[in-house]
Amino acid sequence: MRAFHWQLLPSLALLRAVAGSPSFSSPVLGPTSPHLAQCLLSAPAYTFSCENTTAVNTCCVPTQGLVLQTQFWDTYTGLEAQGQKLPWKAWTIHGLWPDNCDGTFESYCDFSRQYDPKPDPPVLNNVTVPIVPGVKLDEVIKSFGRHDLLKYMNKFWVAQGQPSPEFWAHEFSKHATCFSTFDTTCYKNYKQHEEVVNFFDTVVQAYKQYPTYTFLASHGILPSNTTTYTLRAVLDALEAATGATPHVGCGADGQLNEVWYYSHSFGAPQLGVFKHLNTTFGATCPESGIRYLLRAPGSEA
Ligand SMILES: *[C@@H]1O[C@H](CO)[C@@H](O)[C@H](O)[C@H]1NC(C)=O
Ligand SMILES: *[C@@H]1O[C@H](CO)[C@@H](O)[C@H](O)[C@H]1NC(C)=O
Ligand SMILES: *[C@@H]1O[C@H](CO)[C@@H](O)[C@H](O)[C@H]1NC(C)=O
Ligand SMILES: *[C@@H]1O[C@H](CO)[C@@H](O)[C@H](O)[C@H]1NC(C)=O
């Protein structure tokens, strides 16, 4: 069972060694990371999210600590003509979500960081989610010089029916604003939108740990418009890879289209160390007759 990424611990030890240094840098954390060195110096701050009810530094461990890395299997984007295509032999990123420990969740936790042009839900507890147009997060990423990150996101974080940067804005404003470890106060000498770039880096790092296409392919589960699969076979493949049962989602016609991987993060999710857990939500796929469809011609890059 590979429930915990022990191979990252040498990096943590390195972090601990340099934590006191003002010129602190890390191979794990991106240049826009919060001041996580503070967490390493206060020993008990490090714990798995949701597993210690004693008050911890909320910059070090997320308060809404059931962490979900969510992915899509789409067969088209609708914006192929504009070059927005799906990656060959890879699922795409949906997001990284901070659920409450019991699996319930909150949304749009900070209206001052609302960049989503299409809030969903549009009204939350009787308050209309404001729409603040004009902040283009792809431009924000570029302004931090992170062309590498932008390139990766354009390839693997691909929206359907809307330009991908609008979808990134949705994911940031709806979900990341509820992650306490991305609060702007957690950053030393905070620079506007630093946490946005840090969140996107964190999502990419988590996504890379769950190569769903490969997990399924290694058990002979490949896209096909003629073969169907059982739920047991899909779950067997994903459980063998992660040691836990994710949520798998299907459309009305049994079309496999989502996987959500559940975890508790060791300290901040920015560190990328996750303990895999079973879904709290079950599956929305039929027991048999699951269709894992080929992408439409011209939709893959
Ligand atoms: C929970 O946190 C407290 C205080 O930070 C610490 O003393 C204790 O050892 C922790 N318990 C576990 C099980 O990690
Ligand atoms: C929303 O407004 C309706 C009608 O005024 C009221 O009945 C309901 O309790 C409100 N809900 C919340 C969550 O405030
Ligand atoms: C996940 O579910 C399986 C099967 O029900 C069970 O054997 C296992 O203990 C569960 N794992 C966790 C971490 O709860
Ligand atoms: C497979 O099915 C999908 C979804 O209906 C469709 O878009 C695609 O073109 C089909 N591919 C082939 C090769 O038939």
From TrEMBL:
One of its GO terms (molecular function) is ribonuclease T2 activity. GO terms for biological process: RNA catabolic process. Its EC number is 4.6.1.19. CDD domains: RNase_T2_euk. It is an enzyme of class 4 (lyase). Residues 1-20 form the signal peptide. Keywords: Disulfide bond, Signal. The active site is at H94, E171, H175. GO terms for cellular component: extracellular region. Belongs to the RNase T2 family. This is ribonuclease T2. The gene is RNAau30.
